[in-house]
Amino acid sequence: MPAICVNFPPLPQPEAAEMTDSLFKFMLGEGHVRGVAVRLGDAWQEMLRRRRHGSGVQELLGEMSAASALLAGSLKFDGTLILQIHGDGPLRLAVAECQPDFGLRATAKEIEESQAEEPSAGDLVGLANRHGAGRCVITLDPRQPGQQPYQGIVGLADAEGRSLHDLSAVLRQYLDQSEQIPSWLMLAADERAACGLLVQRMPGAGGTAGSDAARADEDFSRAVHLASTLQRAELLELEPQELLRRLFWEEGARVFEPLRPRFHCTCSKQRVAQMLRMLGREEVESVLAERGQVDVTCEFCGAGYAFDLVDAAQLFHAGVDQPPGPAQPQ
């Protein structure tokens, strides 16, 4: 992947204004430190337009969407990255997916609580870990047939059992434990944007001992020190390239060709038909008898799919793989 700039020359103003969704990979100094910066603008707005949640859950979903793109951008992996929070509070499940082409989607399931009991935005304990049973699951689902998914699971508490209050801390723990890569990251989301910055020590940078390893550790520590001066408001306001310029202008940074995350839902009538086949003929026919048709709504994008008696009959007809008719979005 070619580097497009060194020491951050200014971008033309029209191009900068248009870059509402962008992901930049970068390297610092002598190559001991790498990172990813992402800003979701239009993609995040499209997710909000399709599925709304309480303020705390909505902010967490924004951070998860940005985090899924950051993690996918840090990996050499051909497949879908799925980030999940399984909660024991008002939030029972939150999911963000990043596809190989950086198509993103996210959704959440909540239990109803009174407005007075709704946790504040960013309160991961109040949302998903009230009784200590919450967990974070990261799944790498390969695109190639026959390859098995990889799954990593961490709790929402540190090694001493103390609850972690934000997603950034949970993911730092995951990267330290599961990937064994020293990492620092910050996430932020509001009504306008969902953003993130990830800084990592290169795996194996500097070998295992000696002055090279010490230099790699020093470079990573300096990068973390600089990144830690970042404020949440700055992360939300600045374009990624300007953000990197301000933080690392002395670090000899190399910024690579930008990628363009976007909202994209992978639902289809064919996928819904496969799900109904898994439910079985008896279950589908019972819904048809009660309601006259089977209606399924995508939890990610809100698209609706309807199957009437004729559609359902063809679902279970031998040799038929494709359901008839186009999708019926609601």
Word description of this protein:
Helices cover 35% and strands 26% of the residues. By secondary structure, it is an alpha+beta fold. It folds into 2 domains: 3-263, Hsp33 domain; 269-315, Alpha-Beta Complex (CBS domain Like). The strands form 3 sheets. Strands 1-11-2-3-10-9 form a 6-stranded antiparallel β-sheet, with helices on both faces. A 6-stranded mixed β-sheet has the order 8-7-4-5-6-12, with helices on one face. A two-stranded antiparallel sheet has the order 13-14. Strand 7 and strand 8 (150-155) form a beta hairpin. The longest helix has 19 residues, at 55-73.
Summarize this entry quickly.
The chain has 330 residues and is an alpha+beta fold. The chain is 35% helix and 26% strand.
Mean pLDDT, rounded to whole units? 86
Provide the low-confidence segments as ranges.
1-18, 319-330
State the fourth-level CATH superfamily of the largest domain: Hsp33 domain
Note the overall shape: elongated
Write the layout of secondary structure elements.
Elements: E1 3-6, H1 13-18, E2 22-28, E3 33-40, H2 42-50, H3 55-73, E4 79-86, E5 91-98, E6 103-110, H4 124-128, E7 135-142, E8 150-155, H5 167-179, E9 183-189, E10 194-201, H6 210-227, H7 232-237, H8 240-248, E11 254-256, E12 262-263, H9 269-279, H10 281-291, E13 294-297, E14 304-307, H11 309-315
Parallel strand pairs: 6-12
Antiparallel strand pairs: 1-11, 2-3, 2-11, 3-10, 4-5, 4-7, 5-6, 7-8, 9-10, 13-14
